Every structure is written in C-alpha cells, then in structure tokens.
Amino acid sequence: MSATLVIQSQRIPLPFTWLQACLDSVADWAGLNGYEYRFLGDEIFDQVVPTLLQKAGGRGVIATDLARLSLLRQGLDQGFDRVVWCDADFLVFRPEAFVLPPAAFALGREVWVQLEQGGRPRAYPKVHNALLMFQRGNHFLEFYADTAERLVRLQQGGMPPQFVGPKLLTALHNIARFPVMEIAGMLSPCVMRDILNGGGAALELFLKKSPAALAGANLSASLTAREGFGEAEMETLIRKLLVDGL
Question: How far, in Å, CA of 33 to CA of 79, rounded?
Fold first, then answer.
C-alpha cells in the first residue's frame, strides 16, 4: 500500500470538458510520487447521512464538503499515513514543485482578487479546502468534520455554498493560524482573465499578495461560465499555466 492516498470527485459526464486536464494533472502528479489515486462520481454522496444531505440542499457544494471529510477519515482508517483531497478543478501545473508539507495537516491558500468600483483590484487573503492534507495522528480532521456537521444541523435558514468550506476554515484560521500549503492556490476570474491577456493589475496584485510561487491552483469552475469563460478560453488558460506557470 502507498503511504499516501489522493482523492478526487466529480459527476460524470463532466460539466466542462476542460476539467479533464485538471483531473489528469492531479492523477499524473500522484503517479509521479507513487501515491494511490482514487476518483469517485456521485457515489461520494453515499458518505453523507440522509438527514444531513437533505439539510445541505442535496448533492451540492456543502454536501460535497461534508463527503470529502468522511472520505479522508476513511482513508486514514484504512491504513494510509497521509490523505489528500484535490477539487476536480484543481490544476497541478508545476508537479515537481508541488511538494506536500511535513505538517500534521494543511489547507490551501486563497488570495481572492476582485475588482471594486472603478475597476480597481482588491485582494482578500483566505484559506480554502480545494486542497486538504491530513497526516495520520492529526487532531484537526475530526474536529473539522464534527464542527461542519454540527453547523449544518444547527442552521435554520439557507446556507451559502462556502458555509463549511472556506468561510468556516478562514474564520478558524484567523484565530488559530493553521498550517497552509502556500503553493496550492486559487485563481479568481479577474486574475484568470489577466493571465489570458498577458498581464494586468489583478494579476500583479495577486502575485504581490501571494506568499509563495504557486505550483497548483483551483480554477473556480463554479464561476467560469457565469463570468464568460468558454471552453476554448479555459483550455488556453490551462495550457499557459502548464507551460509558463505563474
């Protein structure tokens, strides 16, 4: 058995064809390092108890956030020394530099850049769960999973998609300063647009505020279509990142 398990999930058929390149990049990175790789479809939701699944609004973002924690716990229970989750829209574009940290656990880094009034970019530093890593013996996974489930059960009204993901993790991180895998980032639409255009103020700010040079990043699939990114543009973006990095 490999000491490390890497898990990804996405419904099939893929909602965007460019996601396949992202999935392949993670699978190739796992193979390069001798890690075991598992891909799951909608069966991921079997990990969420029916009452929580209904409360989370069905097979959406919050249910996926809960399911990934269950799968990561199972991986450790099955004997793996380390478990890793990568979202389906996470691209590893510098695999040789995408090295897991020796910490007991780690979250991804989010430097979210958006355009304010007048088109001026502003950066919001956060953490994200598009990349999660847990070593055997860590004390955070059980706490995080229990807290996320508790919040879903207690919530009476609607819940934003990031309720038990980046919102919860960033709130906790601001207090406790969790280990962060700084090379595992997230690109907002305006940053991706600047990459496609060969540069711009949003990209400049992103690079300035990022604590380290990225080796992989989440490509915000939930926003790309709404922000006007077509399949061809996303494929061009991915090629640029794979060839030139950031």
Answer: 18
Per-domain residue ranges of the chain:
4-244
What's the gap between Cα 46 and its chain centre?
Answer: 21
* Superfamily of the domain at 4-244: Spore Coat Polysaccharide Biosynthesis Protein SpsA; Chain A (3.90.550.10)
Give the strand order in the sheet containing 184-186: 90-92, 216-218, 184-186
DSSP 103: S
Nearest in space to 77 (alpha carbons), one of 130, 31, 142? 142
Count CB-CB contacts under 10 A for residue 87: 28
Closest C-alpha to 101, from 182, 32, 29, 165: 182
User: CB of 9 within 8 A of CB of 40?
Assistant: yes
Tens-digit pLDDT string for the chain (246 aa): 579 999 999 999 999 999 999 999 999 999 999 999 999 999 999 999 998 888 888 778 999 999 999 999 999 999 999 999 999 999 999 999 999 999 999 999 999 999 998 889 999 999 999 999 999 999 999 999 999 999 999 988 888 999 999 999 999 999 999 999 999 999 999 999 999 999 999 999 999 999 999 999 999 999 998 999 999 999 999 999 999 999
- Per DSSP, the three-state class of 93 is coil
Look at residue 110 and give its three-state secondary structure: strand
Task: Identify which of 107, 105, 77, 74 has the alpha carbon closest to the alpha carbon of residue 183.
Answer: 107
